[in-house]
Amino acid sequence: MRSSILHLSQKDSGLPQNANPGDGCEEEYREIVEKLFSHVSSKNIVWISIGTFRFMPSLKFIIEKRFPESKIIYGEFILGLDGKMRYFKPLRIELYRKMVSWIREYDPEVVIYFCMEDDEVWQKSMGFIPQDHGGLPKMLDKSAVRVCGLDMG
User: Which CATH fold would you assign to the domain 18-130?
Assistant: First the structure.
């Protein structure tokens, strides 16, 4: 079986590197979804992982020094329980809801999961938590079996 992976980074997508949730960047993120589905048929997508930028507080100075024109580290960040700086939860939820709705316009059945998010974010963004479907590993396994035609018997 031949397989390929499409990686759309900010640089590849034409997204401004200063795109922070809540600063009007939603249209650029919508373009990412459009590009994904214009390059890859949804029937070939096993799952889509969505996450937002987070970083160790000690990296702020390094980012400022190496990328002085970037404003990304000046977004609405808070210190998360994992010790990393994260976008304020309501901003993440708002962006995730939009991203999920845009993806669902192309394929209402594709599996979407959040990278490094808690049950509250899942519930408020997707309307369920992974445990409702047997847990994240089971969700991903079922999707791989369905999309790749794997025989688990």
Answer: pyruvate-formate lyase- activating enzyme (3.80.30)
